[in-house]
């Protein structure tokens, strides 16, 4: 006890000595007296704000947000994630984090961006700065922001308008699949794939209507989350490309599926001369719940975070519309195409589950010209003397499109 009392007295004497011999010179004293934060730093003590952060409980949920990646973080990273979320929402230029490790800060920050597409003002190529302190497990975090207050108001209005437009397209009892389908088609119809200053966030998708994969995937996540559908933003790589890619994993009726609105809005993925026909512009549904094995041949998620295992294929567009064939039969395929034309379709599309069946159909219908038999049926159906037809293929997904 005497030793502890002695140390306290010594500390007090030291502080008095500092006051008397130039505390102003070393920044511990100001016109209001002691600068306690400076005193803390001088003695390698944590700032008051950091001490308060450490006392706070870590909320495990955030209302209105699913936060898949938050749940993959350890306790320290989760604390940093919550501190970042609070600072960014308040648009603080810099703020303390009670963590300092580069790995933990990076994981928390990356998880935050993936979980919260609505934080668009920090998601467009802005530099992040971090200041660490010796002998202290804390840092000053300074995310780079963009957009003026006026621009943010316009972006927020555009986001709300997009949500209301999607709501107007859905019946009250819409299934999770129907919500996913409408959001998928909405993004494709309302956004153009264009590289721009805003292309990496939902600001580009909803405000400028121009985005790349990050904007599309963030837009899908934002809308589906508001509709109550579990949707995960995924970053990864594309086979044969040095550029990254972003897509979504959605949970529909308890099963996980891929959803890639970016590829659904890329007419150049179709081969043949159909891609140049504006009047034949059509939604490419191949990337709405594609078969997992086919999708994974081209896209691989990053290794930073694990993502759910996708196995289901029952909500594939072609499965739901009886346009998926396990083998090839000219008569079976011809009957299917005639049925689609009878129902008023201007675009007939179908896919195969085996490469052998796809190759056989391609050889007979495209190379050998049997598509002309379907064109003849189209003319008879509409009582016309001639028709111009085009085709397109998605070879990786074993899909064919006939357009009249």
UniProtKB/TrEMBL annotation:
Domain (Transglutaminase-like): residue spans on this chain: 174-261
SUPFAM superfamilies, A to Z: Cysteine proteinases
GO CC annotation terms, alphabetical: cytoplasm
Gene3D superfamilies per the UniProt record, alphabetical: 3.10.620.30
Signal peptide start-end: none
Domain of life: Bacteria
UniProt name for this protein: Transglutaminase-like superfamily
Organism name: Candidatus Blautia faecigallinarum
């Amino acid at each position: 006890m005497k030793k502890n009392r002695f140390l306290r007295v010594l500390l007090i004497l030291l502080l008095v000595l500092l006051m008397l011999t130039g505390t102003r010179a070393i920044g511990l004293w100001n016109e209001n007296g002691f600068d306690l934060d400076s005193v803390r730093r001088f003695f390698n003590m944590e700032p008051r704000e950091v001490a308060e952060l450490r006392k706070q409980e870590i909320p495990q949920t955030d209302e209105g947000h699913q936060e898949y990646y938050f749940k993959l973080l350890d306790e320290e990273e989760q604390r940093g994630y919550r501190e970042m979320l609070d600072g960014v929402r308040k648009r603080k230029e810099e703020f303390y984090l009670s963590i300092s490790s580069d790995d933990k800060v990076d994981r928390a920050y990356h998880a935050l961006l993936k979980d919260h597409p609505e934080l668009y003002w920090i998601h467009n190529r802005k530099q992040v700065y971090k200041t660490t302190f010796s002998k202290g497990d804390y840092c000053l975090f300074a995310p780079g922001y963009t957009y003026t207050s006026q621009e943010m108001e316009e972006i927020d209005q555009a986001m709300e308008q997009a949500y209301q437009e999607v709501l107007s397209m859905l019946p009250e009892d819409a299934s999770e699949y129907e919500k996913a389908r409408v959001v998928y088609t909405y993004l494709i119809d309302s956004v153009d794939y264009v590289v721009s200053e805003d292309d990496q966030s939902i600001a580009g998708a909803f405000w400028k209507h121009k985005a790349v994969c990050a904007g599309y995937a963030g837009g899908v996540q934002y809308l589906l989350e508001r509709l109550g559908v579990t949707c995960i933003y995924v970053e990864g790589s594309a086979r044969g490309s040095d550029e990254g890619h972003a897509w979504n994993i959605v949970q529909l009726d308890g099963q996980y599926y891929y959803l890639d609105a970016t590829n659904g809005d890329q007419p150049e993925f179709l081969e043949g001369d159909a891609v140049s026909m504006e009047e034949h512009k059509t939604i490419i549904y191949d990337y709405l719940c594609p078969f997992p094995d086919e999708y994974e041949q081209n896209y691989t998620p990053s290794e930073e975070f694990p993502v759910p295992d996708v196995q289901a294929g029952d909500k594939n567009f072609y499965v739901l519309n009886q346009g998926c064939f396990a083998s090839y039969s000219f008569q079976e395929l011809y009957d299917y195409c005639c049925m689609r034309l009878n129902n008023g379709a201007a675009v007939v599309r179908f896919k195969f589950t085996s490469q052998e069946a796809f190759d056989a159909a391609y050889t007979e219908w495209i190379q050998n010209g049997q598509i002309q038999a379907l064109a003849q049926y189209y003319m008879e159906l509409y009582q016309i003397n001639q028709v111009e037809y085009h085709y397109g293929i998605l070879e990786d997904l074993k899909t064919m499109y006939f357009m009249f």
